[in-house]
Structures are given as C-alpha cells and as structure tokens.
Amino acid sequence: MFSFNSSLHVILFKVSMELKSTIRARYLVIQGNLNGGDLSISPGIDRLWVEKTGSFTFKPYEQFQIDELYIDGIFTSLTPMTLEGKALLKSNLFYIGTGGSVTLDSTVQATQNWTGTSRIWVQDIAVNGTFRSGDIIMACSQLFINGNFYSGTVRFVDGMDKLEIGSSGNFVSVIDGPVRTDVLNISGKWNIGNLVEFGSLNRSDSRIEKFLVAAPNGDLRLNTKNLPLLVNGTPVSRWMLRSLKT
Fold it and tell me: Of 184, 179, 180, which Cα lies nearest the Cα of 169?
C-alpha cells in the first residue's frame, strides 16, 4: 500500500530503458542468418563479412563504426543508418559482391516514404550487386557502380576523386547539390530525376578533368522527372542560382 499526505513530497524519476542487443567483436563473419533487432556494435568492428549464404538484418542503435565491409549475401537495415570508420572518421572499404544485396530503410522501400537519411562515410565504395536506400548523404573518395544502385535523394559531400559506372552499372537517383569529381566515367546507365550541376573537385576553373560517357553502353539521362536543382534539400530557382554564383 502506498499513501502520502500534505507534508510528504514525492518525486518520481522516469527511467528510460533503451533495450538493445550488443555485439562486441573485431571480426564479424555471417554465414547463416543473424537477425539482430535493435543492435549496437559499440565500440566498433574491424571487419564485417556477410558471405554468400549469410543474411544480416538489424535496426542500428546509434552509428555503426566498421573499418571494412564485404557484403556477398544480404545486409538489411530496417531504418536509415550511419556508417563510419572505427580507426578513422571514414570506413576504408564498402564492397558489395555480384550476389550481394544491401538495403537501408528497408521497411518503407515499397512506399518510399523515407523515415530519415542514411549517412555513409567511406573512402572507397564498390557496388557490384544491389544497393537500395532512401535519402542518403555520402562522403567517399571513390565510387564504383557495376551493379544496381537505387536511392531516394543523394547528396555527395566533400566531392570525389573518381566516380565510375561500369558497363553493367545502373544508377537511379535524385541528386541534392553539385556532383564534384575529377574523373567521371559512365559506361553504364545513370538516370538522374532532377537538374544537376557537375564540376571539378580540385581544379581552380571548376572543370572536370575527364568526363566520359563511353560507347557502346554509356547512357546518362538528366532531369528525367522534371525536378528542380536542389541545394541542401531546397529547390533552387533561377534567381537563387544566380545569387549563389555571384
């Protein structure tokens, strides 16, 4: 029995318990099925490998710090995720093999009512299988796509040394902000739903050193959905664009 009177002051503290599982490992190898639910990998993992027979499904608790990722099986984040390095700010490598599949914000892929924005901080990204995400911010030095890359809105921060779409590559996206790179090779397909600005990462005259749409399969299509130029998620009108450049 609990009772109180006017001379008794009762203070109640609400304790918030965030329930999660935690995996602490240097090397995480998945050959079978791992369904992690709400999952933390703090303080980070040196290398994650999902083999061809493996399946990894989880809801990330805070950021995932992983130095190297090799995905030859199925990698599914139920919500948007933040990926960064353990030893350094950026992961060294995010490699998706030919049979590999990566899906971020998976629960709303059908409706595309994205629940947030994924953040991928990786030096080198190679997509030979399939990558699906909602809205995403990417900071990488090199991006190679020779499989399928489907996303909502993509924003490249800091620019890239090289962006390459191989002959079997298919990149479908809306671009937020400029695409800054020194080398752009398109041997496959890139479908961009809005207006976009391309420019150099390092040259003082802002011109890309080499911009190649290669024969026989190179296919670059711009503004396929008749959408405006975006800067930090905001549509930019012509007069706003002039003011930004002055």
Answer: 184
Distance, in Å, from the CA atom of 146 to the CA atom of 212, rounded to the nearest integer, reads 16
Residue 8 covered by a domain: no
Per residue in 88-107, pLDDT tens?
999 999 999 999 999 999 99
Q: Are 58 and 76 in contact (CB under 8 A)?
A: yes
pTM of the predicted model as reported, rounded to 2 decimal places: 0.88
Is the CB of residue 125 less than 8 Å from the CB of residue 157?
Answer: no
Within a domain: residue 201? yes
What is the signed CA dihedral for 65, 54, 101, 124, rounded to 10 degrees? 40
Query: Is residue 218 assigned to a domain?
Result: yes
Best CA proximity match to 189, nearest among 145, 128, 126, 143: 145
Question: Would you say residue 17 lies in a domain?
Answer: no
* pLDDT tens per residue across span 105-122: 999 999 999 999 999 999
Closest among 55, 28, 56 to 41, alpha carbons compared? 28
pLDDT score for 237: 61
The Cα 4–Cα 76 span in angstroms is 51
DSSP sequence for the chain:
-----TT------PPP----EE---SEEEESSEEEEEEEE-TT-EEEEEE-TT-EEEEEESS-EEEEEEEESSEEEESS--EEE-SSSSSEEEEEE-TT-EEEESGGGTTT----SEEEEEEEEEEESSEEE-SEEEEE-SEEEESSEEEEEEEEE-S-EEEEEE-TT-EEEEEE-S-EEEEEEEESSEEEESB---EE-SS-TT---SEEEE-TTT-EEE--TT-BPPEETTEE--HHHHHHHH-
